[in-house]
Write a structure and sequence with these properties.
The longest helix is centred in the C-terminal third of the chain and has 12 residues. The protein is globular. Helix content is 37%, strand content 16%. This is Rhodanese-like domain-containing protein. InterPro entries: GlpE_sulfurtransferase, Rhodanese-like_dom, Rhodanese-like_dom_sf. It holds the Pfam family Rhodanese.
């Protein structure tokens, strides 16, 4: 059960998000447009989680590293699952956007 929860919330081995960004990762912020406009990570893409399945074309390269984020990590975990189920190979749950922002220095 613990391993399932770790997997859902993206816990486990430490991920170097700054290194991922330096190697071409994109940040997909899955909060609502209003939440995104109130503050977001520079150069991130806003695709609300409830519209993600219909907007996968906005993330063309299925092998490019993708970091999902939201307000707390719940929606970004769902987004990670959606992306993985659609063939995206390198998807990371970055959790809350403000915490991720501090980790990547943007």
């Amino acid at each position: 059960m613990i391993n399932i929860l770790k997997k859902i919330f993206g816990l486990g081995a430490k991920v170097d998000y700054q290194e991922l960004i330096q190697n071409g990762a994109i940040v997909v912020d899955v909060r609502s447009k209003a939440e995104y406009l109130a503050g977001h990570i520079k150069d991130s893409i806003n695709i609300p989680v409830d519209t993600l399945r219909n907007n996968l074309f906005k993330v063309k390269d299925k092998n490019q590293p993708i970091i999902t984020c939201c307000a707390s990590g719940m929606r970004s975990a769902s987004a990670k699952s959606i992306l993985k189920a659609n063939g995206y190979t390198a998807v990371y749950n970055g959790g809350g956007w403000s915490s991720l922002k501090n980790k990547i220095g943007r």
